[in-house]
Each structure stands twice: as C-alpha cells, then as structure tokens.
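Just scan this pair:

***
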Amino acid sequence: MSDAHKSGLRTQFGALCYRMRRGKPEVLLITSRGSGRWIVPKGWPIDGKTPMQSAEIEAWEEAGVRGRMYPRCLGLYHYHKSIAGGGELPCVAMLYALKVQDVASDFPEAGQRKRKWLRPRKAAALVDEPELAHMIARFDPAMLKA
C-alpha cells in the first residue's frame, strides 16, 4: 500500500541541529523541497536504525551536517505532510539534538534546499508548527547534559 492510501498517524524522526557562536546557540533550519517552508531535517523510520540514528541520517542527507547526536528525545510535534495528489498525512515527529561539528557543501540534497543558521528565537519565528517553534525557542544546550 502506498503512503497516499494510508490515513493513520505516521511517525518521523527529526534533528535539531545546533552550533555555538560567541557562547550562544544557533539553530540550523532548511527549506522543504515542496513548499520552501523553513523546517528541521526529518524523515521516515529507517529499517535497522534507532529513531536517533534515523534523525542523524536525515540531518546528513537534507542539511549536509554531521556531529554529536544526543540520545534523549527533546519532544514531539505534529504536522500535516503534503502528499502527491493534494492530500495530507497526519504526522508526529520526534526531535533529537545534534551538535554540528562538520558542515559539507556537497551532500545528497544540496541542490534542493537552502540552509540558514539563526538564534533559537528567530528560528522559532520562521517555522509553521507551534510545538516545534516552542521547542526551538526554548532550546538550551545545557539541558542536554541533565
């Protein structure tokens, strides 16, 4: 059965990619391929991979970043994914933090997306999903050590 025929809630795994600049965090947003909205890297579960590993793979493929993943889920947010044929698929995304250590210019979706580094509050203002915006605005790397 194709995704277009499924109507139940689906799960995705996302990465909140960040770096430290002048002692303060910056968050990486990317554009979606379809609408060009600002989002975080995320994708479907990958066979044989944990949710955190799936988020790490999406961060590389969609944003071209690698770094240290943190195993604790930062939280969940829901949204509706547009699908072929004009429909929408209800999704919930689990978000994991990734401290970026390497930013590549050549990565799988390099020509398909834009990247932008922003302070958390500015990044939060650009995303459409209220729950994601809340997590980004409140993001503090110090909470990853707790």
User: Anything to note?
Assistant: Residues 31 and 114 are 5 Å apart (CA to CA).
